[in-house]
Description:
The protein has helices spanning 3-8, 14-20, 25-28; strands at 48-55, 58-59, 62-63, 66-76, 79-86, 100-111, 116-130, 133-148, 151-166, 177-192, 194-195, 198-209, 216-227. By secondary structure, it is mainly β. β11 and β12 form a beta hairpin. The longest helix has 7 residues, at 14-20. It is globular, with a radius of gyration of 18 Å.
Amino acid sequence: MSPCQTMFxxxxxxxxxxxxLPTAIALVSGCSSYTTLQxxxxxxxxxxxxxxGSALPxxxxxxxxxxxxxxxxxxIPRVDLGAKFIPSSFALPHDDLNPDIYMVDGKVELIKEPVxxxxxxxxxxxxxxxxxxxxxxxxxxxxxxxxxxxWYVGLKALYSTYDTKVTDxxxxxxxxxxxxxxxxxxxxxxxxxxxxxxxxxxxINFVQFIGSNVPIIMPAFALQYDIK
Length: 228
């Protein structure tokens, strides 16, 4: 069972989910990225930031790991760009349904002082080609983030689109195709940035799924190294 299944649908078999809740394909077949792990302040032109960390999903069987690596670069004043990779093979507990996630984003600094306010727009591509499902998806992440050098808070929404096919000959749904799209979650994040050139970044994400009354709490952490 993947971290997503453990967190969101611990008691339902995969095929039942496909029948009673087609929109759950987006959650069962591929999770989006639920971490932020960056401050509100943009990097100066020519400055780079390398990052490695993990989300810590709190599932029914205990905490899991969803590792990620990222890089950011300042390009022009008040604008920086980032890229993130979440490899499915390193997720714990491991499951063939965990997707590889490739993500890019751009952040624009709107207000510099006394508290920095920035707008960020990210896009990710998710793909999986193992287990009983094959498919791909894409997610948009519009976000407003504010803070200072040592802390940040943010509010984002996730809009996801998934196309999935069941490829299990022993499953009565074999060959069935599913499409799901729509607003998936509204997330609130609070985090800290501790250190100078090398930073420790702990954060907590409150993930509210559309149509659900109970938010999911997703802790995360990263180590970030600044290169100027």
